[in-house]
Structures are given as C-alpha cells and as structure tokens.
Amino acid sequence: MLIAGEPLLTKSDETVCRDRQQEAEHLFDHLRRGNREILLAASGTYCAAYFDPETRELLLIADKLAIRPLYYLVTNEFVAFASAIRILESAGLCSGDLDERGTYETVMLGFPLSDRTCYANVRAMLPAELIRILPSSERRERYFHWDQLAPTSDTLPETVDRLVGKFNVAVRNRLRGDTTTAAFLSGGLDSRAIVAALRGQKVNVLTANFAPPDTQDRVFGELVANALTTRHLQIDVVRSAAGDAYRKDQLREWLGKLEPGAGRPERPNMLWSGDGGSVGLGHVYLNEAASREISGGNTDNAVRELFRYNRLVDGNGALTKAFRSKSSTWLFDAVRAELESIASMPEGRALYLFLMFNDQRRHLFRHFEDMDLQRFEFHLPFFDAGFIEAIVRAPMSWFLYHRFYNVWLKALSPAAASVPWQAYPNHEPCPIAYEQELRYQWNDYYGKLEARRQVRNRAVRAAKLLTGSFPQHLVDRGRLSAAIALTLVGSNSYGHILEAGAVFGEHWARAKGSSAWTGDERGKAK
Question: Looking at the chain, which terminus has fewer C-beta neighbours within 10 angstroms, N or C?
Fold first, then answer.
C-alpha cells in the first residue's frame, strides 16, 4: 500500500493512530479485509493506492475533497498513477492528444474542471473517489457523498460554537502532540485563526511573514503576532522571489538556522498554512444573487451571476478565430454541468460544493507538484473534512461576505480579533480602525515595477514556444508574437494573451513529445 499525506483516521473527534506509519498499517489492514468503511473515518488530506495480489485489484483512493492530487491513466497494457503530473510527463506517459477543454479551462481559471487535465489520457481523481481497477474492468465510485448531508437545525450561536470546536479538533489532531511548531502569519484572517487555535492549546509557535514593507499584510501580521505572543520573523523577500507564493527558499534558510533543542519545532518541515479558509469558511466568490438563482432552480442564471460577480468571460485573444468560435461556451457549459452533477441542496450549497470540488480542490496542486523537491509539507486544518462537513450542513446565507467568519473568529480567540486584519473587497470590513496608510493586498501589493517584471517574464516564456512544435490551429501565432513584442518594449496590457499562449504551447509540446520545448525544467523528475 502507498500513501501520500495524512489520512487522520478519527473516532469521536479523536485520532486513533499515533503517527502516519500506524495509520498506514491500520488502513492497510482494513482494506486487506475488504472493509472500505474505514475511509469514512479519514478527515485529512491524502491519496493512496492499494493492490490486492490475490484478486489483482488495484484501488486508487482520494481524500474526501481530493486536496492531495492523484493522477492516473489506464491503458490496455498497464495502469500508471502519480501524485505529481510531472512524473507522468517525464515518463512520456502524457504523450498523445491535448485535452483542449482542460487546457482551455486552465487558461481561463488557472485549473481544469472536473477530472480533466491538459492531457486527453490523464485524469485527476475527484473528491471521495475510489477507483477499482481489475485486469478486465475499471469502476469509479464515491465512498462519501457531500451532496447528501442533511441540513442542521442549530441556531447561529450554536453553529458558531460547533465550528469553533471542530476547528480546534482539526488543529489538535494535526499537532500529534507537538509542543513547538512553525506557521505562516499574514495580515489576513486564515493564518491568524490557526495560530490563535495553536496558542489556545498552549503550543509554542514560530511565525513567519514575508509581505513587502508598508503593506497591511506585513503590519497587521506583526500586530497579531504580538497579540498572540508568537516568536515572529519578518522575512524580507527579494523581488525575484515574488512568484513563489510560499517563499520556500527563505523558509528553508530560516528553519535551517534554528538551533536544535528547546525552541525548535519537532517537525520543522511541517508548517501551518491558512489555505482553504477564504473559500471554505469565508465563502469568497459567492454572493446572494447567485445563491438565490440556484436555489430557485435557475442554473443558467446562477452561472451567469457567478461569472458576473467574479468577472469571468469565455474566450481569450490569443486563440485563433476558429478555436474561439468552437470554445465560445465551453466554460459556461462546464460550470453548468458541474452544478447539475450535484444533487439539489438548500440555499445555494451546490455553488459552494462546486467551488470546493474545483477551485479549492486544485488550490494546492502546484505546491504538491514539487513538494518532494522543496521538502515542505503543510498542516491544512481549513480543509479538515469534519470542519467542512459542519459548514455544508449550515445555512449558506450566514457565511456570505465573511459575516460568519468575523463572529466565529471572535469566539475562537478574542485576542486574534482585537487587532486589525486585511479584509476582502466587497466583504464585511474589519471593524477595528487603523490610522496608517498602508498598501492593500488586492491593489498595488508589490508595486508597478514588479508587476511589469512578471509580465516581461511571461513574454520571454511565451517567446520560447514560437519555434518547434506549436498549436497553430489553437493559438494565433501573429497575435501572440505581437503581444510578446509589445510587452518587451514596455506594455503591461497583454499578460492574458501571453499566459494563454504559454499554457497551450507548453502542454501541446509535451503531449506531442517535442524536444524543442524549453519553457522550464519542471518536467524533469529529480
């Protein structure tokens, strides 16, 4: 049996195994005896594979939200699977046809929808999916059904208390008895909620912030570190590292300098991350109009409102006229199909599950892609299955615009709620006043020079694709060339065209096995 990640097998909100090794053995023993009900007890983020040599059945298993990716392909001769798609690319197993829909969705959203990838022969496992593969058959099942959860009758205060308890359990179970740990700490809500829960459980916390000077993110992060009494480090990041969301080189250097003994985390390569909080608890990307439409059975109107609220449109200027015509409704149709695949739920919860099954499910795929090279893993309590289940059972209207989140944070930790935080646009503002003029994360976070540098890097990346194998029937070479030239002489307006050209060009070259592609070294297994 192979496991990546941490299943976190629980009973009555308590973990039943002391560590990952014992969990793997426990899971293996149950699966060997044919007991797949054990999967219902897992609340963590993981993927697994189990092979029964007697029946020759291969089981591929995704966690309840499929946060930890598992890619697979099935041929007449063999089955291949990997937790990083670059492994399949390196082995030449992604060659063949491009999945045009998956690649188009990646351009428009940053990720494909459903089980699609950018390759026609490679799939990504879905939430709570169990795939049974025998020499003569393949069967896909779901061992847990999110859309069948019954609504709770709890009041708002009762739900706040329940979710405070569930979150504390999620944090405690991931600690596994650690007394000192390391965590990200920004100026927002998600990371402070985690650090607050850790401090509430008397854990010593080393926190790190790497926001630029004169930003809300940096100043508020320091304020909450003082309020929660953490050992806080401000990491000054060079501009060239701005594209690395987690600044792993700087984190490695920081943790490597910590002296062994008291004050050093027991597991220094395990960091606490607030990923998942803004959508899972804060309900970013959702609004009352979309919820009203989906609750009334108007799926098309709900999709239109979702697109309007999040400024999504079908199409991209990098694509050929013929392909734009062919794909003009692909994104709309794909989102509608995803919503229709989820059974009717009260108060727009289908929209919420759509985001959890797609946007949030793919949220950390890039991190997991190179995790074996970077040697960092994250504790992710906001993706705890028990915590999300309690949210799904509650009325969605309470959670919109971070209204519930702000009340919940104060109940979780009055100290964490006592200093300002960085609020989302169009969401409930932070009620705590602050005087200093600070840069806002969703405006000019790194400054115009850094934004221009990143767009120029995209232009260089796209330019490398104009030689060798190139999908001229999908990407307009003339438009892409013009966007590259205009960007290199100073324009900052064509990033979307450059990104579309690069995504299509790179995956086309890999699918066709072209040796001319030299965009980066990600495809090389190390």
Answer: C
Q: What's the CA gap between 18 and 435, in Å, rounded? A: 48
**In this predicted structure, what is the pLDDT of residue 441?**
67
Separation of alpha carbons 418 and 274, rounded Å:
19
Residue 518: its pLDDT value, please?
Answer: 35
Q: Which domain holds residue 346?
A: 288-360
User: Strand pairing of 377-379 and 57-62?
Assistant: unpaired
In terms of Cα–Cα distance, which of 24, 28, 44, 45 is closest to 36?
28
- pLDDT band of residue 255 (cuts 50, 70, 90) is confident
Element (H, E) at 393: helix 385-393
Among 43-47, 115-119, 312-316, the range scoring the smallest mean pLDDT is: 312-316
Per-residue model confidence (pLDDT) at position 524: 38
Give the Cα separation of 226 and 236 in Å (integer): 19
Same domain, 254 and 319: no
Does any domain span residue 524? Answer: no
Cα–Cα distance measured from residue 314 to residue 316, given in angstroms and rounded to the nearest whole number: 7
Residue 424 counted as domain residue: no
Global pTM exceeds 0.85: yes
pLDDT at 443 over 90: no
Shared domain check, 136 and 200: no
User: Is 425 a domain residue?
Assistant: no
Q: For the domain that residue 176 is a member of, what is the CATH number?
A: 3.40.50.620
Are β-strands 377-379 and 270-272 bridged in parallel, bridged antiparallel, or unpaired?
Answer: parallel
Please tell me the distance from the alpha carbon of residue 461 to that of residue 38, in angstroms, as a whole number. Answer: 46
How far is the C-alpha of 127 from the C-alpha of 300, rounded, in Å? 24
Distance CA 175, CA 194 (A): 12
233 phi and psi, to 5 degrees?
-125, 130
End-of-domain residue from the set 145, 166, 186 = 145
